[in-house]
Design brief:
- This protein has a single domain, classed as L-fuculose-1-phosphate Aldolase (3-Layer(aba) Sandwich).
- The protein contains seven helices and eight strands.
- An eight-stranded mixed sheet has the order 4-3-2-1-5-8-7-6, with helices on both faces.
- Strand 7 and strand 8 form a beta hairpin.
- The structure holds zinc ion (ZN).
């Protein structure tokens, strides 16, 4: 194991503990992966993100085959789909964080851009968040839907399930998925209030300045 992999193992465990401490990873939900030289590192099946151990993480090769460490979660196929679709992707984070899951259950979301434009940082960190059609966890159709959406979007919301976010680095994926959770939380918090949304011109200005 080289220095980069050792470092990635530590960072995954630290991030898992942070997500758990903030209540973003109920039970054994959520998974984190980081691309490494021999494929990617991933949180194992039935593991609480708050109690990960660097030596127990799963290692999958570039084709998604389990080659070392504990068995990966069945959700590893979602991560494989994102890595395959996005050459610049260095890390993937998936959570069942409460507000984002609740938002994923709403009727009438725009599948190409699920959030109304409320705050600049949501637009800067998330771009347009895609809604991925529902399929049973573990069903190969779900990975196919994710692969399709991930070509155009780095932040995805799985219908009735939760968010999946890709980043060039683990830090950027983590920051984006927290922004997504906060955007959903804000939406619910503002119910019953008159919201001043960003205008189309303000959104365009943000996209031109910050979204590649
Ligand atoms: Zn899930």
């Amino acid at each position: 194991m080289n220095e980069n992999e050792r470092d990635a193992r530590e960072r995954i465990c630290r991030l898992g503990a942070q997500f758990a401490a903030r209540g973003l990873a109920p039970g054994t939900s959520g998974n984190i992966s980081v691309r490494i030289e021999r494929g990617w590192l991933m949180t194992p099946t039935n593991a609480s993100l708050g109690a990960l151990e660097p030596a127990s993480l799963s290692v999958l090769d570039a084709a998604g085959m389990h080659v070392d460490g504990n068995a990966p979660t069945k959700e590893h196929v979602l991560h494989r789909a994102v890595y395959a679709a996005r050459a610049d992707c260095g890390a993937v984070v998936h959570l069942h964080s409460t507000h984002a899951v609740g938002y994923a259950c709403l009727e009438g979301l725009d599948p190409g851009d699920v959030f109304p434009p409320m705050t600049p940082y949501a637009i800067m960190r998330l771009g347009r968040v895609a809604l991925v059609p529902y399929a049973r966890p573990g069903d190969s159709r779900l990975a196919a839907f994710v692969a399709e959406a991930a070509h155009e979007h780095h932040a995805l919301l799985l219908a009735n399930h939760g968010p999946v976010v890709a980043g060039t680095t683990l830090d950027s994926a983590a920051a984006a998925i927290e922004e997504l959770e906060e955007s959903a939380k804000l939406y619910f918090l503002m119910q019953g209030h008159r919201v001043r949304h960003l205008t189309q011109a303000q959104v365009s200005e943000l996209r031109a300045a910050f979204v590649s």
